[in-house]
Structures are given as C-alpha cells and as structure tokens.
Amino acid sequence: MSLSALAACLILAISPLLWLPVLPELPELPVIHATLVVGVALALTRVKAAHYAGFWLLFFAWGGLAALSAVWPMQHLTTGPQKAEVEIIASDGATVHQGRIVRLNGRRMLPAVGITLYGNALPQTGCAGQRWNMTLSLRAVHGQLNEGGFDSQRYALAQHQPLTGRFTHAEVKESRCSLRARYLTSLTTTLSPYAWGPVLLGLGMGERLAVTPEIKNLMRETGTAHLMAISGLHIALAASVIWLLARGIQFFIPGRWVCWRAPLVAGFCFAAFYAWLTGMQPPALRTVVSLAVYLALRLSGRRWSSWQVWLVCVAAILLVEPLAVLSYSLLLSAFAVAALIFWYQWIPNPRWSLPWPLRAGVNLLHLQLGMLLLLLPVQVVVFHGFSLSSLVANLIAVPLVTFISVPLILLGMWLHLWPFPGAENAVWLLADRSLSLLFGFLTTLPDGWITVDKRWLWLTLLPWGAIIAWRMRGFRVYPIVCLSALILLTFPLWRNSTTDGWSVHMLDVGQGLAMVIERRGRVILYDTGPAWPGGDSAQQLIIPWLRWHHLHPEGVIVSHEHLDHIGGLESLRNAWPEMWIRSPLGWPGHGACFRGQRWQWQGLTFTAHWPLSASAQRGNNGSCVVKIEDGVHSLLLTGDIEAQGEKALLSRHWQYLASTLIQVPHHGSNTSSSLPLVQRAGGQIALVSASRYNAWRLPSVKVARRYKNEGYLWLTTPRYGQITVTFSQQGWQIRRLREQILPRWYHQWFGAPGDNG
Fold first, then answer.
1. Residue 345, Cβ neighbours under 10 Å: how many?
2. Are 77-177 and 502-747 equal in CATH topology?
3. Please, are residues 565 and 528 in contact by the beta-carbon 8 Å criterion?
4. Is the pLDDT confidence value at 24 over 80?
5. Which of 278, 311, 578, 691 could disulfide-pair with 511, CB 3.0 to 4.6 Å?
C-alpha cells in the first residue's frame, strides 16, 4: 500500500467522528477490541481490498478510542469532589484559569485532562507552569445548541477541554512559572506603552485575549482575521528565516561540510521551538506536525506531488490528534491549502511580461482572487458569510504583515532576550508603526461583510465546478450536464417551501427566553433572551439564527422588563428598525399588550390575557400572557408569571386558556405552574427554556412531575437544545436539535443525568 493511499484511508476512517450519532459505551469496549482484531487480520492478508478494509478498521478504532477517552472524564469525574494535581496553562490573573489534570487521586492521568476553572481566585497569583493540589467540583462541558449557531461542545472537545468547574481547596505544589510564562510577562510589560501592543502580542505569541472586540470585528469584516492566528504563516516564516541563515552560513564553509539536509532540519527545529514558545496552540501543533511530515518526505529522496504531501500532512495530524477532525480551524486550514493547490494547477499565474513590481502585484491579486472564490463553501459553513473587501484588504495586509510586521516582531522577540534595549525599542516602534499603517488602511475600507443564509450553501460550490467545466470544456461538450448542475445548485433559492402550517422555535439561549413564531417565511418573536456585560443573546444567537434561515422579524412581543427576557431587544431594533414592539411596559415606541387585546398576523389569532390594562404591576406577575391559535392548535406564552398572577389570570378567563402547547412560566420555577394553570391549559406539550447549570436549579423537579402527571410531553432546552414544534391541519411534529436534527455523539448530555433539565 502506498503512503498516500494509507493517508487517504486514515482520513476516511477518522472522518466519521463528525457524523456518528453515538459512541459505544465503556462496557461495550469489546466492540472496539473486536474491530482492532478484525482490522489486524484483514491488514495482514494479501487481498488488496481486504488490506484497505483492515487499515480502515484499525484507524476507525483509533479514532473511536480517542473519542471515548475524551468522553470518559465527563462521565466519571463529575459525580463528586475530586482530589487532583492541576497544572496551570493559562490564567487571567483573577478568577478564570485553564489547566490540565495531571494526577487524580494520586494516579497519573494519561493523557492529561483539560479543565477550565471559574469563579475562584487562587491564593497567590497564578501563571502557566504552576502546579496546584486542588479539591475540584467538576461539570461536563455543556453548550447552547441552535441551528447555524456556534457549537461550543464540539469546540471544547476539539480543544481537549471537556470539563469546567470550581475548586474548593487549592494548595500550591510548584509555584515557579514556566519559562514561556516568565518571557510572556516580561514581553507584555515591554509592549504595554505601544498603541498596538495587544496586537503585537497576538501576532508574536498567540495571546489574542487582550485584543479588543472592535479590532477582532474589523479583521473579521475585512477578511484578515487569519493573519492573527499563530499558524502556518508565522511558523513557516520563522522556519524560512532559519533556513536562509543556515544556507548563508554554508556559503562560508568548505563544500565537503555542506549538507543540504542541515538547513531543513534547523528550520524545523526552530519552528518547533517557536510553536512551543507561543503556547503550542492547536493550529501551531498542527503546523509542526505538517512541517515534520514535509521534512520526512523531503529527506526520503523521492518526488512527491502537492496532493500527496497534503494528504499525508492531514492524515498525520489526525493520527496524532484524532479529535482535530472536529476543529473548524483544521477545516479552514486544510481546505485553504487544497484550494491553493487546485487554483494553481487549474489556473496558473498569468505569464505576462511586466516589471517585477507589477508582476508581484498581479500574482498577489491572482492569489487573493482564488482564495475569495474557492474558500466560499467553508466560509459560509463556518462564518455564515464572506467579506467582499477581503480582496482589497489582503492585497495590502498580507505582504505588509508577512514581510514587514511579523519579521519585525520576530526580531523584537529575539532582541528581548539580550541587553540591547535601544535596538529592541526601535524594532518594536517600527512594528507598531506598521500595524498602525495596516489598521489605518483597514478602517478606510467600506463594510464588505456579506451575510449568507443556508439557501446559498450549495451555490458556493459553483466556482469549483465552473473552473473544472471551463478547463475540461464541459460547457461545449456537456452543456446539458452543466445546466442541470447549475439548476440543482440554485434549487434552494427558487423552490417554494411555503405551507399552510406554522412553527414555533424555542431557541436555546441559556437562562432566559426567546421564542420565534414562523409562518409563510415571516416571523415574530416572543422575548429576546438575556444580556451580559459586553454582549447579548440577540447578537450572539438570535440574529445569526434568523439570518441563517433567511427570516426577518416583523415584530417582537416583550413579556416583561427583566434582563433575561429583554436583553437582546436593542440589538434586534438596530438590525431591523422597522419591526413593531408590543409590551405591557408603556415605554416609548412600544404598543400595548393587555388583557382583551386581539389581533391577526399571517392568519393566526393573537389574544392577550394578562396583565390588566389598569394594573401598575411590574416584574414577573406583570408578564404579558398571549395565546396564539390557528383554529385547531394553540400556543400559550406565559413569560415569568408566578402563582399569584396565575390565580388572578384564572379567576375569570380560565375557559380561554386551553392550549396545545404551553411555554412553562418562569423557566420551570416552583413559584409558578400552579396545578390549576397546568390543568386548565390542558395541553399536550410543555416547553421550558433554562440553562443547565443555573444557580436556581431550574426547572424544578416538582414542576416537571406536575406536568408529566397531567399528560404533558416535557421538553427542555438544557436537554434538547433548540426545540421546534410544527403545526398543521394533520397534527403537530416536534424536532429536537440534539436528538433529531443534529444527532451527534459530541452533542449528547454528558455528566450527571439529573442536572437542571
């Protein structure tokens, strides 16, 4: 079997980890063992097909074992206090610390388990490299899950950070910071006077936490965010500098001492050292693995094609780190390199006779055009959009950062090790000026970010297909095939998906509430989720969800003024200023929402049942209670109304409250959902919006039992993520994101089964 065939076999064997709905439980490990035995037996045969099948099974078992090892801590370390030795790998100096459990109850952990600790300050200032004996209270990572939203559970597993928690006791075992931490502290102090010091740290050391959100957003909108990551660009540049130095030294030594391998080995060694210095973040680790593979292939003395090198590099990364298959950064990197190979093979650089500055500009424009067109599929999948201004931005940013800023930063980092403060300050000043020039240019560019909804997803493959069809003359030879392919790619844009049914989506916004009522491609919202310092759920979840589904809200009903229900309202108003607002608050620009009001929207009847118009009541018991009905099915939206308000609501209007579905009031609190309300609603479905690890342990077990005893189907966002209920004349259908829409092993409920939900 050739090396490239073996690499392809490995990639195909690890890739199913992206789609597997479940993993075998630990008691079922004989399944993995049997897979290994059968794989070895087949791999040793002389039949070619069996040979491939055997290696596929071996690599598949390797990926399954890696996934099981990541899941094991979440299932077994979250049941009670754990005594552990924790090595700190990063700390904000206050209450957030990232670390690795290297020993558990006196036994060494192999591999070490990643953990993020919140809410406690260490007895002394924490830094990377310290080791602490701790008593830990741990939780399995659990993220909010919505269609088209950020998948935090997948990200945490890809980063090998499956646990979060707190420590109840901490005693330092080794207080000395690591060499990298001491160097970083010194470098941070040196760069603090410079205007672009945080960006210099980000480019040089991979420390992006200090970079302001405004700068990050600017780089995202201009398509230059890739320059901030410590990845192939920076590490390969560092390796190239050492390679050039080694080649330069060879120029002055006798020919018999010259070895063509020495510069390659020196460049790789420095690249590995630099990746370690920057914290060996996953992109840096993958770059080092790829450089090691490239070095081995070069030293083999054989000639390898670009596609063979790409295959072997990706396979080596997945062999070393199988869960990297879950990483979006690996997807972006691997796809970008594949796009570059494809672009230069199918559309080479134009061979025009031009002066070298113009030729360099043309070549750079050719490169950026290829990246803009061919990276569309992965950009839409990951970011739900792309930047039109990236073509112009990268024409300036890439050469400026690659050939000026990064070399100056590397030189400054080297000079920082020596007692030459004058030379070092001069270098940092030049690097700072180069970044000032860069961001000054980026701020002059118009906002070129184009948001793309899921209807366009297949159409982003058009540049790839068009290039292939053009080079193979498919437009002339197979015009019907090309036209058919175009029609299939554009089918989601022109197909008519309008039905007589309507849907209600309870979004997973954590400890808050946001519901979307959708009919005929139009939507209104009931509540807008929570807000927090520096952001809100509308910016992070609701607006991206609406845009991904090509939906524009016509209005919002606000139940009451608490921040977990109204937190995203301003962001929604900024995005869609024309939408109307109804609430019981009497604020400027808000329509009224009081008992007795009735209106129509898209054939649905909305009736407000609470509060009274003359009431000055605020807070939970002032929640706007609305019933939505289509003549057959109905939905009761209750906000945070509590038992006292429920009693007043039922006193005269109980006969109007019967509903198919009820939004459980106050996130399932025991102060709400009194038995009379549960019985009078007489529904079939109860939906609860809450956060899994909320401090109030909502929803209440008593409330859940109350609904279940009355025959309701009990569904919660902590358990199922986004919940969608679709009503039609034939009945109703429920789709739960974790179980039905996106059933993946990394979306499961890990840890203690009874946690809030």
1. 12
2. no
3. yes
4. no
5. 691
Tokens of 68: 């099981």
Fold of 77-177: OB fold (Dihydrolipoamide Acetyltransferase, E2P) (2.40.50)
Nearest to 685 by CA among 716, 656, 654, 639: 716
Domain covering 502-747: architecture: 4-Layer Sandwich (3.60)
DSSP string of 608-673, one letter each residue: EEES-TT----SGGG--EEEEE-SS-EEEE-TT--HHHHHHHHHHHGGG---SEEE-GGGG-TTS-
Tell which phi-psi region holds residue 633, choosing left (phi > 0), alpha (psi between -120 and 50) or beta.
beta
Residue 233: pLDDT band by 50, 70, 90 thresholds?
low
Interior CA angle at 99 toward 93 and 105, to 5°? 125
Q: Per-residue pLDDT tens for 80-136?
A: 899 999 999 888 878 899 999 999 988 999 889 999 998 888 998 888 899 999 999
Between CA 703 and CA 710, with CA 708 as vertex, the angle to 5 degrees is 100
Element (H, E) at 337: helix 328-346
- Tell which residue, 514, 505, 503, 504, has the closest CA to residue 690: 514
- Strands 634-637 and 625-629, sheet pairing: antiparallel
Strands, sheet with 580-583, edge to edge from the N-terminal-most edge strand: 591-592, 580-583, 553-557, 522-526, 515-519, 502-506, 723-728, 731-736
Distance CA(505)–CA(527), nearest Å, equals 12
* Surface-to-core class of residue 183, CB atoms within 10 Å of its CB (0-12 exposed, 13-18 middle, 19+ buried): middle
Q: Are 275 and 285 in contact (CB under 8 A)?
A: yes
Q: Which residues share a beta bridge with 403?
A: none
Percentage of the residues of the chain whose pLDDT score is greater than 70:
96
Strands, sheet with 625-629, edge to edge from the N-terminal-most edge strand: 598-601, 604-610, 625-629, 634-637, 661-663, 685-688, 713-716
Q: Kindly list the domain boundaries of the chain, sorted by start residue.
A: 3-75, 77-177, 454-494, 502-747
